[in-house]
């Protein structure tokens, strides 16, 4: 039977389409523009890659601190959408502001604040999954979000790419072109957020008491105790910490790595556009396979595939190699995120989704501080960028082993 999404599920997916435009810009044009600003300031290629990695690390560390705290508050009745909206507006406003900055250091500062707003909004967006759908539909709805997010983000990205690459032919300088690109992305992100903002209702929540913040911290403390008792959730989060760290590091650092290797900017951007195009059918195909085999087995295959990708990155030294890497990432990137999100949503208490997904985000986007810092430090210590990038392969090995253990423990807990 053909899967048909409900109106609320469609509006939830639409936000993925909107925010994915920022993800696409942040992982492609942002580092190239930062390279342009850093080059004008006399920053070396190795230091450029390292500074970009440190900025990504600071951003994810901020989200790691904010996520569970605000997630606990968001579980209070009628709070989830309010906090989500604050970070959404912070991200959109920051995206607009970035185009007007010409100093490399201030660009990094603004980037950290903007991406923190974006990443924090996703903590609450992910937690909304338990409110907008049912457990048996989570794998498919989560996969639909990533799939349409990938293909939908191509529309504003192509428009931004045309402005950046073709602006000179119509008399636009780099600064003006970047302002227009950031405006296009911010507008797309905001407009596609409106349906969710207008229709979302918090289905699962904790009743508001006399002291919302104090009560939220008390619930968060009880959640930590609960996770220690429910070992299958704890081990999964630990596994997720390692393998998704590697995934987000590759996403955050791919363009910067290619730039540091001296690869053609236009080729890099087109290769990463190909990643989005490949990701769309790949997510849907792997979700179809997951429904017929087992979602956990497909997720394990995705983690193993990323291990191979990280090893392959060590040998990358040409534009062709980067295109191959882009295709491989596109094949597995969406499914490893979608199936992780839905698997976690099915094993946690729905009424505590905000605080649990806050912890999930620590082990996800927040944990990426380890991978980006590892790449930056190893690159500077060895003077070889490929050594730093390939070092993240160990994260996938640890993550895969722990994930297999978590699945077995969860199966035992359900018996």
Characterize the structure shown.
The structure is a single chain. It is globular, with a radius of gyration of 20 Å. The chain has 18 helices and no strands.
Give the arrangement of secondary structure elements.
Layout: H1 7-27, H2 29-40, H3 45-74, H4 80-98, H5 104-127, H6 129-132, H7 138-166, H8 174-191, H9 194-199, H10 212-229, H11 231-260, H12 265-292, H13 295-313, H14 319-347, H15 353-362, H16 368-382, H17 385-390, H18 393-414
Strand pairing plus helix content: what structural class? mainly alpha
Report the biggest beta sheet as strand number plus sense, adding barrel if it closes.
Answer: none
Q: Helix amount, in percent?
A: over 70%
Give the helices and strands as they follow along the chain.
Answer: HHHHHHHHHHHHHHHHHH
């Amino acid at each position: 039977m053909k899967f048909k999404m409900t109106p609320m599920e469609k509006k939830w997916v639409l936000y993925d389409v909107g925010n994915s435009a920022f993800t696409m810009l942040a992982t492609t044009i942002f580092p190239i523009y930062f390279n342009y600003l850093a080059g004008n300031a006399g920053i070396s290629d190795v230091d450029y890659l390292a500074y970009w990695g440190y900025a990504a690390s600071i951003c994810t560390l901020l989200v790691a601190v904010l996520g569970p705290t605000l997630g606990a508050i968001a579980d209070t009745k009628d709070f989830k959408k309010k906090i989500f909206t604050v970070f959404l507006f912070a991200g959109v406003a920051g995206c607009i502001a970035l185009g007007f900055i010409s100093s490399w250091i201030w660009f990094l500062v603004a980037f950290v604040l903007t991406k923190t707003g974006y990443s924090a909004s996703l903590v609450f967006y992910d937690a909304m999954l338990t409110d907008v759908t049912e457990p048996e539909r989570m794998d498919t709805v989560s996969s639909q979000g990533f799939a349409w997010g990938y293909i939908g983000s191509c529309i504003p990205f192509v428009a931004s790419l045309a402005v950046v690459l073709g602006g000179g032919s119509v008399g636009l300088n780099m600064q003006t072109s970047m302002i227009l690109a950031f405006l296009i992305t911010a507008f797309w992100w905001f407009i596609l957020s409106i349906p969710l903002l207008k229709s979302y209702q918090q289905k699962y929540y904790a009743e508001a008491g006399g002291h919302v913040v104090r009560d939220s911290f008390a619930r968060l403390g009880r959640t930590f105790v609960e996770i220690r008792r429910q070992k299958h959730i704890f081990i999964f989060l630990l596994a997720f910490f390692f393998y998704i760290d590697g995934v987000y590091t590759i996403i955050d650092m791919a363009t910067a790595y290619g730039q540091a290797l001296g690869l053609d900017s236009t080729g890099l951007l087109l290769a990463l556009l190909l990643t989005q195009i490949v990701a769309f059918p790949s997510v849907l195909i792997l979700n179809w396979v997951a429904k017929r085999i087992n979602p956990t087995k497909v997720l394990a295959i995705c983690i193993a595939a990323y291990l191979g990708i990280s090893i392959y990155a060590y040998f990358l030294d040409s534009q062709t190699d980067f295109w191959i890497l882009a295709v491989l990432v596109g094949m597995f990137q969406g499914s490893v995120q979608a199936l992780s999100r839905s698997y976690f949503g099915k094993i946690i208490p729905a009424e505590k989704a905000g605080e649990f997904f806050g912890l999930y985000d620590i082990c996800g986007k927040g944990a990426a501080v380890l991978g980006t810092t590892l790449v930056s430090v190893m690159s500077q210590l060895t003077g070889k960028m490929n050594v730093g990038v390939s070092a993240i392969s160990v994260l996938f090995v640890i993550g895969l082993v722990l994930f297999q253990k978590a699945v077995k423990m969860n199966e035992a807990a359900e018996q």
